[in-house]
Amino acid sequence: MTDPASDKSNRGRLVLWPALITFAITILRLEGELHHWGSVWFNTSAGGGAAIVGISWLPIIFGPYFALRLSKLGAGPANYRKAFGSTLGALAVMLLGAILAGVTQAHPGVLTLAGFVIMLVGAFVPLIGWRSLAGTLLVYAFAARIPVLVVMCLALSGNWGTHYDAVPARYQDMAFWKKFFDVAVLPQMCLWISYTVVIGALLGEVASAMFGHRAVRAS
Questions:
Q1: What are 77-136's pLDDT values in tens digits?
Q2: What is the average pLDDT value for the chain, to the nearest integer?
Q3: Which residue in 62, 83, 67, 78 sits closest to 126, CA to CA?
Q4: Virtual torsion, Cα 145, 123, 63, 42, nearest 10 deg
Q5: Which long-range contacts (CB under 8 A, 24 or more apart) does 108-114 make?
Q6: Which CA distances in Å does 139 have to 47, 146, 193, 198?
Q7: How many CB atoms lie within 10 A of CB 90?
Q8: What is the pTM of this model?
Q9: d(Cα 129, Cα 8) in Å, to the nearest integer?
């Protein structure tokens, strides 16, 4: 039987509003930082300074949202133990990659790149346990992070004074495209993709196990 959530048009509709909300928050954050609307809400320091307005906390909401919607469609996991197991495995892979990238970042090289690649691999591991949820989160993750990548490219090239172009001192004199790759492409397309999928899947599985429909089929 065809999984209703595996159809690209259905998955696109499921992701559309969360992606638009995420994009709106990204633009709001950029505006807030450019106009200095308050460091608690919009922080321009490197990494964002845990500012309240941001998109990193959205997987906590959208993971359960996607999971409950998919469960309602009858596209839940065939086995919750397998789903949780694969997601916990993905978390371990992500952390391994993060540790490798972190300990080698002072002198970036092949091992640093390998760490980021390992993190990205972690984003695909949850597909083993609940393909529909992990696939939906992958689509959402790229929809969320590609606009950030574009903003970072523009900010880095224009020195906008936002957290999007705030970089450690060692990157100041680096060639633009090398700097963009190191501080934007690798984190956004590896670390944050993995974080979005793994955290979203973990919390989504908890929500589905507690509140989702029990009559589900393999997906």
A1: 989 999 999 999 999 999 999 999 999 987 888 999 999 999 999 999 999 999 999 999
A2: 90
A3: 83
A4: -30
A5: 108/182, 113/186
A6: 24, 11, 10, 13
A7: 26
A8: 0.91
A9: 20
Q: pLDDT grade, residue 170 (50/70/90)?
A: confident
Residue 126 in contact with residue 201, Cβ under 8 Å? yes
For the chain, helix, strand, coil in percent to 5 are 70, 0, 30
b vs e for 45-67, b when ≥16 Cβ sit within 10 Å of the residue's Cβ? eeebeebebbbeebbeebbbbbb
Structure tokens at 217: 């089929």
Domain ranges of the chain: 8-211
Dist CA 134 CA 204 (whole Å): 10
In residues, how long is the chain? 219
Task: Give the position of tokens 């790759």.
Answer: 181
**Range list of H helices, the chain:** 8-34, 58-72, 80-104, 110-122, 131-158, 176-180, 186, 192-211
Residue carrying the six token digits 């989504």: 204
